[in-house]
Amino acid sequence: MEGVSSHTRENVYSRVEQEANWSLPHLNPGVLSLRDLRSSRFQITFRKAEELDGWHAVFGKVVYGFDLLKVLSEQGNTNGELKQPVAITTGGAIPAGTHPRDYLKKLEQPEDPEAHGYNKKVMRYSSTYRHTGLIGH
């Protein structure tokens, strides 16, 4: 799945220079990598994707929200075309001193469940991804 960061290109570019790793493999579902180094486009893998290795720098992995990753993967066909539109509406950092699980569970609670007609889902990623050969590490 492909997405676009809401941060400025300069912000994303400088962060990517620090965190992206061209040698990490796209070994598991949930690996985040850059689609294009000069833009804010990124992708999340739904499966092992060795064809991306060396072509797209890895900058993180999903560590929370694998249920959402599965739902997202079911929105496309085998040709990579979407069955219906998918949007990642926001992103951000967890406030210092807040336990990630508590923060993310609070975000999942709908403010007004009938206002939009959809459920809010949350996915968390870690930028400290280091390949260890094990899924989820």
Automatic annotation (TrEMBL):
One of its GO terms (molecular function) is peptidyl-prolyl cis-trans isomerase activity. InterPro entries: Cyclophilin-like_dom_sf, Cyclophilin-type_PPIase_dom. Residues 1-93 form the PPIase cyclophilin-type domain. It holds the Pfam family Pro_isomerase. Transmembrane segments: none annotated. This is PPIase cyclophilin-type domain-containing protein. It comes from Calcidiscus leptoporus.
